[in-house]
Amino acid sequence: MDIPAKYNPSLCEDKWYSYWLENKIFHSEPDEREPYSIVIPPPNVTGVLHMGHMMNNTIQDVLVRRARMLGKNACWVPGTDHASIATEAKVVARLKEKGIEKTSLTREQFLEEAWKWKEEHGGIILEQLKKLGASCDWDRTKFTMDPALSRAVINTFVYFYKKGLIYRGIRMVNWDPVGMTAVSDEEVIHKETKSKLYYLRYFISDGGKVGKDYIIIATTRPETIMADAAVCINPNDERYHYLRGKKIFIPLINKEIPIIEDDYVTMDFGTGCLKVTPAHDINDYEIGLRHHLPVLDIIDEHGRLNEKAQILVGEDRFVAREKIVKMLEEAGNLEKIEDYLSPVGHSERTDAVIEPRLSLQWFLKMEVLAQKALKSVEDGKVNLIPDRFTNTYRHWMETVRDWCISRQLWWGQQIPAYYLPNGEFVVEATLDEAFEAAKKIDPNVKKEDLKQDEDVLDTWFSSWLWPISVFDADKPGFPERKANRDLAYYFPTKDLITAPDILFFWVARMIMAADEFMGQEPFTNVYLTGIVRDKLGRKMSKTLGNSPDPLVLIAKYGADAVRIGMLLCSSAGNDVFYDESQVEQGRNFCNKIWNAFRLTRGWEVDENAKPSESAACAVKWFSAKLSKAINQMEDHFSKFRISDATMTIYKLFWDEFCAWYLEAVKPAFGEKIDKVTYTKTIEFFDSLLKLLHPFMPFITEELWQNMEEREKGATIMLQKLPKATEYSEEDITMFEEAAGCVANIRNMRQSKGISPKEKLDLFVKKPFVNSMKPIIEKLANVSKIEEVDAFDTSLQGVNFMVSTTEFFIPVKVDTAAEIAKVTAEIERYTKFLASVKAKLSNEKFVSHAPAQVVELEKKKESDATEKIKSLNELLQRLK
RNA sequence: GGGAGCAUAGCUCAGUUGGUUUAGAGCAUCUGCCUUACAAGCAGAGGGUCAUAGGUUCGACUCCUAUUGCUCCCACCA
Length: 879
Fold this sequence. Notes:
Layout: H1 13-22, E1 35-39, H2 51-69, E2 73-77, E3 79-80, H3 84-97, H4 107-121, H5 124-132, E4 142-143, H6 147-162, E5 166-176, E6 181-183, E7 188-206, E8 209-219, E9 230-233, E10 247-250, E11 255-261, E12 273-276, H7 282-291, H8 317-330, E13 334-347, E14 355-364, H9 367-378, E15 383-385, H10 389-399, E16 403-404, E17 406-407, E18 417-419, E19 425-427, H11 431-441, E20 451-452, E21 456-457, H12 460-463, H13 466-469, H14 485-490, E22 495-498, H15 503-518, E23 525-528, E24 532-533, H16 550-557, H17 559-568, E25 576-577, H18 580-602, E26 605-606, H19 613-638, H20 642-665, E27 673-674, H21 675-692, H22 697-707, H23 729-752, E28 760-765, H24 773-779, E29 782-788, E30 797-802, E31 805-810, H25 815-841, H26 843-848, H27 851-878
Parallel strand pairs: 1-2, 3-4, 9-11, 15-23, 22-23, 24-25, 26-27, 28-29
Antiparallel strand pairs: 5-6, 5-14, 7-8, 7-13, 9-12, 10-11, 14-16, 17-21, 18-19, 18-20, 28-31, 30-31
Helix pairs in contact: 2-17, 9-10, 9-15, 16-17, 17-18, 18-20, 19-20, 19-21, 19-23, 19-24, 20-21, 21-22, 23-24, 25-27
The chain binds one RNA strand through β8, β12, α7, α10 and β25.
């Protein structure tokens, strides 16, 4: 035998992946079969594979491969997301390393750099997915900034603008001073942050001069006092009624501002006095609107104080905070400082502290879109798995605010709004169309006078079209897509596998877009995977350095092992605690499969021999077991219980097929195996490999190809998954009884130090009806099974019971130990019997419980009574 | 502050309309085996008052209430 004893994944993974690619097995074209389509959640184009991707894509691959083997036309569309903020930040950083500032480049020059970066790094993550075995249709690989996809985005913008859902306005937005752009509410992460509450003295104006009296105002942001427009008190706060109509001075700059009254102020928080800074706080902005306060913006786009601040100009807001506190202290305006824990908004992408900032942005009205998207889920047209996410989904959809879709970046789809010299604008997909439209406003306008909006669109404004746009790429029209063959065939997709943290960012918005443009849901099931955490429960992250490199893992253990490791610990919606031992388990499993193959491969077949009795039994039993497992797996898959399905096939292969079946059919040393059993075994093995294939594509292909001579281009990938047949449950229970008997005998051998090689006699009390007796003989190494009415009391030996059948093996025993064991057994059963009897003597139980439950208890009673009786007899004999 | 979820063996989790469960699995642990497919293996064993306290019920891991601990989401008290 020339097969090595250990499976070496590196010898077959690349080989078979190339084979699949060469034979275009992942590629799908519409045909008469039922489609099964999945779109990949597009990873960031500049990203690298992390454990979350591994988990996510393994599950997708399992589903796709399974669908393919069920005879469906499976299509898994891969691609990447341009991720505007993240990518732009990386490009800016790279330029900086070269000593180039973004501001020194033109938009075109910058974009050239960005595309270069994309070409260099964009494919990395997809190449990594190939190592995992992902059976994506690579010919359909898309990028959210591909010309056709970008066109779709622009057309969508124009469409919503003309529908009146997109508007432009000055609003307080979440400003990311590092990314130098506005971000949407969803991109702001609130973190509990340790900060300080500063109590400042504001002196009351005495006829335009700084008076002697002061009030104390608590603030977390002393650096913004220069932008204060008023001090606000609650109208019901009698403590401050004396301030009505008075004015007050801002410390340091001595600017006089009014005292105003508003219900917004909480009397018992801080001092009950609130400094109102309309330009730098969303609430203050709203108070300002109510009281017509001036808005003074003293922080620039970098988060630094500008000249309007008068002091500390050019200082970063946090530096300014430190400095101004000192200045206030020196000036006698600082009362005290308290530690304070408060939620502070951070940018999802850059982690910068968000600065509320007034700016001119584009918004999409969400109310109606959200209502419809909520209905899709509530009506069950989209199933969230697990369904408890429906609650959070509903909450979000009911409280959603308008979506800020403009970003002050260059990397992305530029907003198709064109400004006329007079400040008016038109929204059209192209400059030519815009020119036509502009002429209607101003007949004298020249094309070159039109200036396109500088901003780009939020990345999610392109990814929400993903399940539509990936099929539409060869058609210029959007939303004119009726005639698109691929879209008509593959849309809607079936399942979406993604992480719960982008349920709102992405999933909800895809539902909105699909409803708007396709009039139906973009997918039926949304399977939300857990977040992969380390053993300590921390989220895997680059900064913590606790995320293993998936490629290193694959190199070390093999892709199949990594996949099994991920699958075994993945239950929907629950966080996943990753530990390398799971991958190790996967590797061991590969090895087990490999060695089972080596065994069958090494058998020599005797064409004329008849199957042994034990082999015949094993075949009968295993075919029943196989069918049962197939049914169980189908059930698990229908409920997205992927880890259970994995465990079902894992145990079927290892515990049933290897540990019992192969042992039962294995010919004695030096002997050949009969043809019938051999053929059956290979058939079973073939079925098992097919069932395993979606989980472990590489090793199964390798072994399947080696089982027999295959045609050119043949692959296990396209074989039909075995179907369950009618089977007898009795064959299974009979076998289990026999196996129980074998286990008892093995146990006895071990405790008595009897070698497995030593043949034993086995006596059993009549009647012993079991069709699997030969299994006992072979696997327990029993020379004969003799049925008797009563055991020979003159023989010393060991008794044991399986279910209610009594067995006896004559061997030398330690009588005292045996007595102790039996006594303990009797005690245990007596206790159990007592509890059953108590139940049965309870009239209420007998009258209320269903008949079959009562019957069951009665059976337990009689069984236990029986057992105690024979145990007592045994005890007598021992004595 | 509001909402959701979780708590079962050392670890990770099943337990699917409350009764075939005297609570299961995998891993880990321990014991014995280099048995001619596999020591990445084989054969066995031990290990849980199902977070706590009540309640409903003939019967509760399962349903209800409260408490404790953890996690996540949402939220403009300076």
